[in-house]
Amino acid sequence: MQRTTLGLIIGNRDFFPDVLVGEARRDMLKLFGECGIDAVLPDEQATKLGAVETWEHAKRCAELFSANRGRISGVVVCLPNFGDEKGVADTLKLAGLNVPVLVQAYPDDLDQLSVERRRDAFCGKISVCNNLRQYGIPFSLTQDHTTHPLSEEFRKDLAGFVAQCRVVAGLRRARIGAVGARPNAFNTTRYSEKLLQAAGISVSTMDLSDVFGRAGRIADDDARVKEKIAEITGYAAAAQVPGSSLTRMAKLAVVLLEWMDHNDLDASAIQCWSSMQQNFGVNVCTVMSMMSERLMPSACEVDIAGVVAMYALQLASGRPSALVDWNNNYGRDRDKCVFFHCGNWAKSFLPDIEIGTAPILGTTLGEENTFGAVAGRTPSGPVTFARISTDDVNGAIRTYTGEGRFTDDPLATFGSRAVVEVPELQKLMRYICKNGFEHHAAMNASQCAGVLKEAIETYLGWPVYLHS
């Protein structure tokens, strides 16, 4: 993760005590330093106390923010007192950063409501938010209406806000690679490239014939191939994989990674069957798993919208994501089900990861042509799931997300697999089916559904269903 830079606006009303503004500046800079965040804010000579109150202050702060446009991923508004709602709103309007905004207000102490220490930030926050709404500037709030910057509660608020900034910035300029055509049997992975582009998400394409042609022109003893074979065998147990299959997998990795690097791509979605097995003789799953583990998410079956969800979860959590099927009920337990793929999950999900074949695909494509699938079981822990889908009929992008947990319940099957418990799972399944969402979802071993919802709904404007 790159180091985060945030703009900081400290609001002020002149008839409140100056000491409160100075304390707020020290508190915020102390917190930012402890959290590894760089701050951009006026110095104490540029405006009175380095705060923003007047139109002149707003212009100076906006100029500073504009000069650092390429660095600033979000803005924190700090209210040590009532603040000046116009000064805050004018600064953001003039700067035109179009980044997430978090509004924080200090709490008053019951024994310090005298003129010397009175804040009234509880009230001022309402006024600031009212003006931001009038100016058409979207913003986020702290969990509690007033909160001290050095409290544990605000640290959590700030961490969530930084994650929101990553999601918003990442999705607004995401570059995704589509390798091959979607499998003909899968209408579910259709998507609107134009709707994604309108949201800032670009898609670059590469035909499988180009992949196979480039791979075929690489010699078996090429240094790049040898290096990739070593990476593959060091990544997962591969004792049962024939040397010829390892070589083909390595060549795929070389071609795909060089293409992605050349096009500055963040993620990919690949036609993983059936041309891959019929015309090249391996599964691409291991290569996809390795890319996802390196925070370059890769999705099956050219599911571009699915890999966008994987990328969004990765941005929110800083951890690898995977694409899953909502695949099986778990006996008669109404709140448990099985996540499955044949599979390409990142190693982070599979402590017992092993490279083998894909038995289901092998029944029709020949199991000897499916070496490269990875298998393993995800142990107990937290999970956030999400799906992004383009609604072409209504010209919109829709999302759902929610949280649950992986369990260690018995599961006697193969592939990349997990048992998942989701409260009110039947309600979620009805929502997914009634609203025409895909059978694929993205998962991440974290709890970040709230971050994802706030980032996508507030700043990207996509409707989000938060399952709870």
Question: In a nutshell, what does this entry contain?
Answer:
The protein is of the alpha/beta class and 468 residues long. Helix content is 39%, strand content 22%.
Structure characterization notes:
By secondary structure, this protein is of the alpha/beta class. Helix 3 (85-95) packs parallel to helix 4. The chain has a six-stranded antiparallel β-barrel. A five-stranded parallel β-sheet has the order 2-1-3-4-5, with helices on both faces. The protein has two domains: 4-172, Rossmann fold (3-Layer(aba) Sandwich), CATH 3.40.50.10940; 175-467, L-fucose Isomerase, Chain A, domain 3 (Alpha-Beta Barrel). The protein has helices at 18-34, 55-67, 85-95, 121-135, 152-172, 193-198, 208-216, 223-235, 243-262, 275-279, 285-293, 304-317, 359-365, 425-434, 449-460, and strands at residues 4-10, 37-40, 74-79, 101-105, 140-141, 175-179, 202-206, 267-270, 298-299, 321-330, 333-341, 354-356, 373-377, 381-391, 396-407, 416-421, 440-444, 464-467. 39% of the residues lie in helices and 22% in strands.
Layout: helices, strands, pairs:
Layout (H helix, E strand, L loop, with lengths): L3 E7 L7 H17 L2 E4 L14 H13 L6 E6 L5 H11 L5 E5 L15 H15 L4 E2 L10 H21 L2 E5 L13 H6 L3 E5 L1 H9 L6 H13 L7 H20 L4 E4 L4 H5 L5 H9 L4 E2 L4 H14 L3 E10 L2 E9 L12 E3 L2 H7 L7 E5 L3 E11 L4 E12 L8 E6 L3 H10 L5 E5 L4 H12 L3 E4 L1
Parallel strand pairs: 1-2, 1-3, 3-4, 4-5, 6-7, 6-8, 8-9, 13-16, 15-18
Antiparallel strand pairs: 10-11, 10-17, 11-16, 12-13, 14-15, 14-17, 15-16
Helix pairs in contact: 2-3, 3-4, 5-12, 5-15, 7-9, 8-9
